[in-house]
Amino acid sequence: IILIISILVILLLASYVLQFNSEKNRLIVEVSEERLSLALKAADLGLWDYDISEKIFIFNVRWSEIMDISHQEITLALDEFLSNVFDEDRKKVSEVINAQIYGRSNILEVEYRLLLKGEKYGWVALRGKVVEWDSKGYPLRATGTILDINGKRKIEEEKKRLEANLFKNAKLASLSTLVAGASHEISNPLAIMKGSLVLLKNYLIKEKLNEGVTKFIDRQEIACERISSVIEGLKLYADPLNAQVRDYPEKLNIHSLIFNLLDILRVGYKRDFVEIETNFLATKEHITASRGSMHQVLINIINNAKLAIKDARVSKGLIKIETRNQDNFIIVSVSDNGIGMDQKTRASIFDPFFTTRAPGEGTGLGLSITYSVIKGLNGSIEVESEKNKGTLVFIKLPIESVVVAKEQKAI
Length: 411
Fold this sequence. Notes:
The chain is of the alpha+beta class and about 400 residues long. The protein has eleven helices and 13 strands. It has helices at about 1-40, 60-65, 80-85, 85-100, 150-205, 215-240, 255-270, 290-310, 345, 365-375, 400-410, and strands at about 45-50, 55-60, 75, 110-115, 120-135, 140-150, 250-255, 275-280, 285-290, 315-325, 330-335, 380-385, 390-400. The protein has a six-stranded antiparallel β-sheet with strand order 3-2-1-6-5-4, with helices on both faces. A five-stranded mixed β-sheet has the order 8-10-11-13-12. Strands 7-9 form a two-stranded antiparallel ribbon. A hairpin with a 5-residue loop joins strand 5 and strand 6 (about 140-150). The termini are far apart. Mean pLDDT is about 75; it is low at about 400-410.
């Protein structure tokens, strides 16, 4: 009896020890899981587990938060997972996953764009590796983390944009210096030529030798004026806001301003198979504005038209610039046969920093500045466009009456 009681006591003690160890292990596991959860939360990491044979992903709650959907674990088939990846990134993500599964890489690591709620995309980083194989060495399971890197990517893109702007500004500064020096060297002998032509013409008239000759001198004078116009245009193009090129409000002939600009742009555009046509119907063509700002407005709009044509990949690009009067306003319209815009893009084109160009190719400020300049002149700007059907821009500016301007000057 004593032996039996002893055995029972030993069994009870063993059972207690096992239960104690089991409870201790459970507590250790709970503490470990809590620590892991806190560490993942602190690092803003989500967890994923991939059943390779079944092609099933399991994501924890953090994935749901990134996706901005219900806060629970999510199970996705591989195809469903890839369908949430941005089209341009899908092939890359698939290749990286396969490379890890089939042993072609040491670790699965890829940054890509993920479709979020509201048809928006955000950047995430996926990391992990295969952690389980069968007896034959075939991979069974992979696991890893996912991190929201949208903020990091935006900072990197902004850094690239600023670096590109700095480089562009440095080039413009060099161009401005070059143009200023060249215009000075050309303007001096040109002034002598113009003066000499005036003296020669007066002499011929005085000596009555002008018959059939002065028309050639007139042509030379026109050619000299054209050279002066080109030099002025280059100065404005290189540094449109420089005070030395009269960036203050003045009475401007909008037609002359456009012609002056086209003298600079037309040759380069022809090389890119883009023709520029003009149709000036406005009879009241004077406005009050700063020459540099208006140059920049027109350059922004015409260059955007050229880029839209380039994106459309048409065999022959065409930009039409037309003017007409409407009440006390002059309407300048610029149309192109480029790729056009959808309604969503059109609604944002005047927003600061909005651009459809790749990082480094555009600042997103051109049309925003254009809008501000036009509004500052008590004018308006409107855009009509459809995808794959080109774009039409209307600029409406108040006219400056030549008669009123002369009367004010006389007073």
